[in-house]
Amino acid sequence: MGGLSIWHWLVFGVIVLLLFGKGRFSDMMGDVAKGIKSFKKGMADDDASPAAPKQIEGQRAPDPSVTPAPTAETESR
């Protein structure tokens, strides 16, 4: 008795179409599809770009062959 029959779903669908309208419902689904595409594109861009440190304009990049000078934190060990 607790299940929904096909008639319940048909009445529900008609009410939804009356409230939102055919055009508005398809526009809403199109917006959802655009959002999903944008999300996938953003995820692909994150995977494609390596995590390189940004260089401030006018400064040289640090030389990886040079070891940094000891700090107070490393000297206390």
Mean pLDDT: 77
Distance between the termini: 74 Å
Say how many strands there are.
Answer: 0
Low-confidence stretches: none
Radius of gyration, in angstroms, nearest whole number = 29 Å
What spatial form do the alpha-carbon principal axes imply? elongated
Helix-strand string? HHH
Note the beta-strand portion: under 5%
- Percent range for helical residues? 55-70%
**Sheet with most strands:** none
Number of helices: 3
What structural class results from the helix and strand content? mainly alpha
Task: Kindly summarize this structure in a few lines.
The protein has 77 residues and is an all-alpha fold.
List the helices and strands and how they pair.
Blueprint: H1 6-20, H2 22-48, H3 72-75
Descriptive overview:
There is one protein chain. Helix content is 60%, strand content 0%. It is mainly alpha-helical. The termini are far apart. The longest helix is centred in the middle third of the chain and has 27 residues, at 22-48. It has a domain at 22-46. The chain has helices spanning 6-20, 22-48, 72-75.
